[in-house]
Amino acid sequence: MERHVLVVFPHPDDETMATGGVIALHAAAGSPITYACFTLGEMGRNMGDPPFANRETLPQIRERELREACRHLGVGDLRLMGFRDKTLEFEDPEKLTGLISGLIEEVNPSLVITYYPGYCVHPDHEAIAHATVRAIAKLPAQVRPVLQCQAFSRGHEEVLGPCDVVLDTSAVWEKVYLAWKAHKSQTATYIAHVEKELHGDETSRKRAMERFSRYGLYTYTF
């Protein structure tokens, strides 16, 4: 069990899609979880399938979806950081770093989870990943929390090698599936496919469960 786990991502659904099983596994072990979500993803292109959101209603819908997903994953402390979607790359880097430093000081995590800087594709992802690294790097080495990062850019394994943290999350697969399902505006098409598998034969059901049963992360080295 971790003393406290701090998860830092820019968008609703990042927590679920990138590290849902990791979060659920730590929560199931009794670790307190704080998730700092920096935007409401209001500039996202997906509006549901069939569409049920529009540009005006999307932020409120995505916040509700996020809260439901966090409930399924076991996130007890959700922090909405109040930034605008697709603008984080233009924010003062030290402002972002300072906010994350403040969270670390407040919750005193033994583990921090974010994206791997340089290998997470989206400018918002990169801004938060770099800010998180800066915040932890400012701490004395002996009191730094462990930083584990999710990388998913094409070819990242050629540079970073295989993940050094590989987790079997089969025990919490259903919690992760329900969190994915909660983000309905973003995941409806994918979940419809998964549900067909879950209601299929044993082979199809096993394949569906395996989608939520294994996660790999990199331990960031300072």
Automatic annotation (TrEMBL):
InterPro entries: BshB2 (IPR023841), GlcNAc_PI_deacetylase-related (IPR003737), LmbE-like_dom_sf (IPR024078). Gene3D superfamilies: LmbE-like. It holds the Pfam family PIG-L. NCBIfam families: thiol_BshB2. This is Bacillithiol biosynthesis deacetylase BshB2.
